[in-house]
Amino acid sequence: MKIITTVKEMQTEAEKLRRRGKIIGLVPTMGYLHEGHLSLIRIARKKADVVVISIFVNPTQFGPNEDLDKYPRDIKRDEKLASETGVDIIFYPSNEEMYPERYLTYVTVEKITETLCGTSRPGHFRGVTTICAKLFNIVKPHFAVFGEKDYQQAAVIKQMLRDLNLDMKIITGTIVREADGLAISSRNAHLSPEERQDALVLNRSLKFAEEMIQNGEKRAEAIIKTVKKMIEEKKSTRVDYVSVVDPDTLASLEKIEDKALIALAVFVGDTRLIDNRIVKV
Amino acid sequence: MKIITTVKEMQTEAEKLRRRGKIIGLVPTMGYLHEGHLSLIRIARKKADVVVISIFVNPTQFGPNEDLDKYPRDIKRDEKLASETGVDIIFYPSNEEMYPERYLTYVTVEKITETLCGTSRPGHFRGVTTICAKLFNIVKPHFAVFGEKDYQQAAVIKQMLRDLNLDMKIITGTIVREADGLAISSRNAHLSPEERQDALVLNRSLKFAEEMIQNGEKRAEAIIKTVKKMIEEKKSTRVDYVSVVDPDTLASLEKIEDKALIALAVFVGDTRLIDNRIVKV
Q1: Which domain holds residue B197?
Q2: Is B121 in the same domain as B151?
Q3: Residue of A164, A169, A249 for testing the chain B interface, max B β-carbons within 10 Å
Q4: In this structure, are strands A259-268 and A237-245 parallel, antiparallel, or unpaired?
């Protein structure tokens, strides 16, 4: 496994691989790898000749009061896990390499970035689309793999690809959960034992919402109300949002006709967690 | 010479050429080719195995009150000129091909787009960077050639390349002028004989400014004042801006130390023309 830290070396390597007809698969990560990332790497491993993961805690997708500084990092452990899972190249650049002095360019996707996490994290998706555009130009992958836990992120990246005519595919991997149902996230490391227990309500309330819909409830408002109530009964939780949207356009739904995305973000203590579920009637 | 109208076909062709090790040079144009474009095509011809020009009057770089509808078009003539100048491929997409329904993504370069033409044409450079990002992803060139008449445009594109890590080069071609000094532009076609005569003041005033500087004038304000006065003496002219800026950062200069870009935009009748000159002390 190679570790590459400069844009120039990564581009030279990528160009060489492409010239040889190799299929490059990229899994962009912020490091502190967990089973969720590893599941995405395994997807890439099946489809690519060369699997690249990027490890970069991207400052432009964090707001001024968010958890950039305390975002967990452990590159040695990441290297070991990546190597064991069959990664060929880790692209691990510095902040200065990615955002040199006089950095001025941003990629923005309108509308679908203005709901869900976009509402409570202004500028977040501009940071995500910008860093992904950069990573795609650096690693030159034939496809990139994103997790469905960040459902909106994957949708926004797909829109960017289509609009900017990036000649590559996005593949998504399903949410990986702990045995008790909590969606795996690097941020789970911040939870106290009590918070960890309270956090189970995210997945449970989504499951309950699915049952409501399958039992005939079609009104988004009723579902949102129930999910919020379930979450707020826990001691350490505070709802950021609970939304029922169209899985393609991310526009709010009033009535659930055939399918819906139920997405939520919840502060558990100081830690903001997200989860979602696609429900088909 | 091939004419390609779809993104998919162009990308397939570009990928095939790159796999064979061919160097692709792109000259992006809005068509109605003139000697300025042809000079850029000749530069590309010298350095590339395959010369691609794009012809696309890009709606997103025109403001609501600008001349999108009356922008001159003549594809048959363009095909003939391109073929004679050694173009291998014309990429000639429709509006729907480039901006399909639910188009939502834009590339923005900050700061250096906020002076000169950016001030009088809000949104213009967002349109330029967005279409160029798209064209670069579609044609996959090793380099693209831009004219120095749109000095700011070339500077903005270079900044975008650097920031988004696009693995290609920008080459610029010097301004091509008519025998009497008028910078060649597709928009010159709109000038009446009297306006055509008045338009000579653009180049003449820039030349005069250069002489002032070479004769010891260092104050940008004095130069701007003189140039404006020369232009406003003509009957059909109205100054949009006259600026003296740093050629690298495009920041306004008060004093000219070693080199400066003098750039101007002038309405001659209803036609907005631009011109510029780099002056070294």
Answers
A1: 186-280
A2: yes
A3: A164
A4: antiparallel
